[in-house]
Specification:
Length: 391
């Protein structure tokens, strides 16, 4: 790392005192560096480090850290929550501090105002004695308080509409749909990396979606954490890991906010019938998620191997074998509900191939669809083993 600055060597020789280096890190190390003499004396260097006992927590990233790393995490967390300055950390390992800082942000979407941090190194000769930590912020305290009030208003309104008696899956589905209906994807969104973009501006990018999802699920009593990585094509991305009844699943609200492109039908298909929600990313296992997503997360992630609370399984739209009775039931019920479209999900490629051959190539779909003009509009996704039909 390039270092520039001023070393007051004369005073150092005379006093043998502690020296500090101050750096500012907006989530990643910068190349800014400053060093000067504090005149603090030898005494501090010889003092034993005192560890302040702090309240533990149940954050996912926190739980994956060693005991020593957890202490640094808690020190950083409390400093950011309480706007404390020059907090003495129990570690002098700058990589460990940077890692703990990112873990705090992953676990705490409510720290929307955090922009980065500065640290100060105290050395005696060539020996690093301690590091202190100070957070840096996007807004002043009045702005933060005002944004918190607006966030609370959004959250209260959202949760007030949650169906009474909804189970954990029902709560996740409701929040997924609510965010998609109330948020527009916008690559130039203001505050796109934090929850303000969703809760205040109504426009966001993937990290804003993911943090807002995490925040709302936490308020609804559902475990969720942030996952970082990239998607097909190499673009950086953020999504969520959640837990329902002891089983882990992935949720990607950003990719859920998408319209299907109808193919095989009329070019003039009514725009109002084009769906706005893609359920392929609601409560999915690792194997399915890794078809398009590659995690590069700050801590290790579990294997998500359950399909019990997957959207298609819970909604009766999942096929482990070709079943004409199930197909007939699904279309009948969707027409009764007044649905505009229906998506069918297959457990593997063989079942998907059977479905496509029967419904499209052999045109059995006309047995189930009301098509007075003899035209079928549909979408086939071989990668996801799914087919969607407009009713």
């Amino acid at each position: 790392m390039k270092k520039t600055g001023l070393l007051l060597a004369g005073m150092l020789v005379l006093t043998g005192c502690l020296v500090y280096a101050r750096q500012t890190l907006p989530h990643r190390q910068s190349d800014q560096y400053m060093q000067e003499n504090l005149g603090a004396g030898r005494e501090e260097a010889g003092q034993e480090q005192q560890v302040v006992k702090r309240d533990p927590e149940d954050g996912y990233a926190y739980g994956k850290l060693s005991e020593e790393e957890q202490q640094v995490y808690l020190e950083i967390r409390d400093a950011l929550i309480n706007f404390e300055e020059n907090v003495k950390l129990s570690s002098c390992d700058k990589e460990e501090i940077a890692h703990a800082f990112q873990c705090v942000l992953n676990d705490h979407p409510e720290l929307f105002y955090v922009d980065g941090y500065t640290y100060t190194e105290y050395t005696l000769g060539d020996v690093l004695r301690k590091i202190t930590f100070t957070g840096t912020y996007c807004y002043d305290r009045d702005e933060i308080d005002g944004k918190k009030q607006r966030i609370d208003n959004y959250v209260n309104q959202c949760l007030a509409g949650m169906p009474a008696g909804a189970d954990a899956y029902g709560k996740v589905k409701y929040i997924y749909e609510y965010l998609i209906h109330h948020t527009e994807y916008d690559s130039s969104a203001k505050d796109g990396q934090n929850i303000c973009s969703v809760f205040i501006e109504g426009r966001s990018v993937c990290q804003g979606y993911a943090k807002a999802t995490q925040y709302l699920l936490d308020k609804a009593g559902i475990f969720a954490t942030l996952v970082l990585g990239h998607v097909t094509g190499g673009e950086g991305h953020a999504w969520n890991l959640i837990q329902i009844d002891g089983q882990y699943y992935y949720v990607d609200t950003t990719w859920g906010d998408a319209s299907y492109q109808a193919v095989g039908g009329s070019a003039g298909y009514p725009a109002e019938k084009i769906p706005t929600i893609n359920y392929d990313y609601l409560c999915v296992p690792t194997g399915q998620m890794e078809l398009t997503h590659t995690p590069e997360n700050v801590v290790e992630l579990p294997e998500c191997d359950s399909m019990e609370d997957n959207y298609y399984v819970r909604e009766g739209l999942y096929f482990t074998e070709w079943n004409t009775e199930q197909i007939e039931r699904i279309f009948r019920e969707e027409y009764e509900k007044g649905s505009a479209y229906v998506t069918l999900k297959c457990g593997n490629y063989d079942v998907y191939r059977q479905m496509k051959e029967a419904l499209i190539e052999e045109q059995e779909i006309f047995r189930y669809l009301d098509c007075p003009d003899g035209v079928v509009s549909y979408s086939a996704d071989e990668g996801q083993y799914s087919m969607s039909f407009w009713l």
